[in-house]
Recover the amino acids of this structure.
């Protein structure tokens, strides 16, 4: 593998234990001001030092993340549809590789929509993005999207999507946890990372994380289950304990409760900063 690509991948997935805690805050690219992510810098700032990498769009990166903080960036480069639009699967590549290099991205992320109306376009987008990104040694994370018309989250569907993503050259795949997740991981020749999905009770989200790791997932790219928690910092630290320290659910949940009692971490003031970006 190309040295630069391998080095960038090592910023995302720790080469010592093969694990990753990615913090996902890219939701606004199709959801707008999602609950608890209304003012991105307030959500992101307290969590930055606990994630291995940050997944987001260029707009939120430029305006809401301190460039002096050395967090590896997984840049979402696909989009083009919104939650109120006609078809969520109608995405294109919206951010160039040149821009990703300017922003010092460690990896690029885009969604594929297997089984949806625009399946073909999204898969061709992935192939083309891998071609372009590999030219500069940048790895690509394929996100197996399950939009509103794609409710299937079963083993068969997710194995199919993950495998197709890897066949098109994705260097990592992000998907959802499902029953018999070992099959999804074992039939995908590149590392598989799970999204958290909609907000669950904290203990349930830790169970999801634990089960995914036990089934062979390389880590999490988690959003809502961290920053929609009343206690985001204790939550990300508990998730980290499972991913990086092999904690079980009981131990991680105990840590979560202990940290919750230390001090409140949820920011109260919602003020949009005016950061000059260009
Ligand atoms: C979805 O396409 C976005 O890429 C999110 O980053 C992803 O769903 C992970 O976030 P969550 O853990 O909130 O599901």
């Amino acid at each position: 593998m190309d040295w630069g690509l391998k080095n960038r991948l090592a910023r995302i997935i720790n080469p010592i234990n093969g694990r990753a805690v990615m913090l996902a805050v890219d939701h606004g690219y199709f959801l707008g001001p999602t609950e608890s992510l209304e003012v991105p810098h307030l959500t992101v700032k307290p969590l930055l030092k606990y994630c291995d990498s940050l997944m987001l769009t260029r707009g939120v990166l430029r305006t809401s993340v301190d460039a002096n903080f050395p967090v590896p960036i997984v840049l979402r480069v696909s989009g083009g549809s919104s939650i109120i639009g006609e078809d969520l699967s109608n995405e294109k590549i919206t951010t160039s590789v040149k821009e990703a290099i300017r922003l010092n991205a460690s990896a690029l992320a885009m969604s594929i929509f297997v089984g949806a109306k625009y399946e073909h376009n999204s898969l061709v987008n992935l192939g083309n993005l891998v071609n372009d990104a590999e030219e500069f040694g940048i790895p690509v994370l394929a996100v197996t999207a399950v939009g509103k018309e794609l409710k299937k989250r079963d083993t068969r569907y997710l194995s199919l999507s993950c495998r197709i993503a890897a066949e098109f050259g994705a260097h990592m795949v992000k998907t959802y946890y499902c029953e018999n997740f070992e099959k999804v991981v074992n039939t995908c020749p590149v590392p598989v990372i799970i999204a958290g999905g909609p907000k669950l009770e904290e203990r349930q989200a830790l169970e999801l994380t634990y089960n995914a790791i036990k089934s062979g997932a390389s880590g999490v790219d988690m959003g809502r289950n961290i920053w929609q928690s009343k206690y985001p910092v204790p939550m990300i630290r508990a998730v980290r304990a499972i991913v990086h320290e092999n904690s079980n659910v009981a131990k991680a949940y105990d840590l979560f409760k202990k940290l919750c009692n230390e001090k409140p971490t949820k920011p109260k003031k919602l003020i949009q900063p005016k950061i000059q970006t260009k």
Observations:
- Residues 24, 26-27, 55, 111, 143, 145, 195-197, 221-225 surround ribose-5-phosphate (CB under 6 Å).
- The mean pLDDT is 93.
- The longest strand covers residues 107-112.
